[in-house]
Amino acid sequence: MFRLSLILLLAGLLVQPACKSPQLVMGKWQDGLEIRKVSPGLFIHTSPINLSNGQVYPCNGMIFMDQGEAVVFDTPVYQKDTEALLQWLLEEQKVKVKAIIPTHFHEDCLGGLPVFHKAGIRSYANRATYELAKDQAEELPQELFEGSHTFQVGRKTVECWYPGEAHTKDNIVAWVPSRKVLFGGCMLKALGVGKGNLADANVETWSASMEAVKKRYPNLKLAIPGHGESGGMELLDFTIKMFNNQISAIHQDTEHFCNHKFYGFSRSFAKLPVRPIGQDSVAGKGLVSQ
Ligand SMILES: [Zn+2]
Ligand SMILES: [Zn+2]
């Protein structure tokens, strides 16, 4: 009997894929906020963006929690979906959200910042993200770091790292070392997709920047793109290949992820100074105020 159980167990392990696909926790992104669980404390949040051509696309972000603390990468585009995300975090998960980190300056990363700020949750970003956002975003990141920064979350860490220009000049990736999970944001392409919105891209350096990500995280188990399905290292390879040998002429795809036309924001907020780092900084070191 024991031997049979053991055989069944081993057979089960063999058919188990190397990385289980994330499991649905709540919602359907077409209707608003969707949350999927990657592993305990690690989630993907997905919500829609309505493009000017009438199409609706899903936008991904990442949540990492440990010991009652959480950090969130990228906000939903819209207030309603951001409120739903905060409600889930604060009321259902009952975590203290230590930071919201937009991974570049487009609205599918920071559109929901006003909702986070209103809830007293501080935002952290690459300085370049602040500089690029300040002419078009309603609300700007509060705490700035130079390219890269490591956040403490409970007893674990998450690394934000700037690999070079790609989808935008400021794009960073997030790495959870304890899980070997990479949130690549919009510089990482899901398999089979097009180039997306290249309005702010550097197509000449994109492949090299993605090569740098690959080199830094050679043992990754899951790679989460800004739009579409997660996977493994093949997403990085797909992205590298897509932008290999690019000529300088910028080609606009038929797809328009992160469409700028949806920055219908008042610009009066844009010049607000970044507040200095408070006592509640996630990790004061390396952070600078504007
Ligand atoms: Zn973007
Ligand atoms: Zn995007």
Measure the end-to-end span.
Answer: 67 Å
Question: Order of SSEs, N→C?
Answer: HEEEEEHEHHEHEEEEEHEHE
How is the main sheet built? 6 strands, mixed
Mean pLDDT: 85
What small ligands are held by the chains?
zinc ion
Helical percent range? 10-25%
Give the second-level CATH assignment, the architecture. 4-Layer Sandwich
Count of domain modules: 1
> What low-confidence regions span 5 or more consecutive residues with pLDDT below 50?
8-18, 248-285
Number of strands: 14
Structural class: alpha+beta
Outline type: globular
Going by CATH, the homologous superfamily would be Ribonuclease Z/Hydroxyacylglutathione hydrolase-like
Assign the CATH class: Alpha Beta
In the sheet with the most strands, the strands line up as 1-2-3-4-5-6
Rg, rounded, reads 19 Å
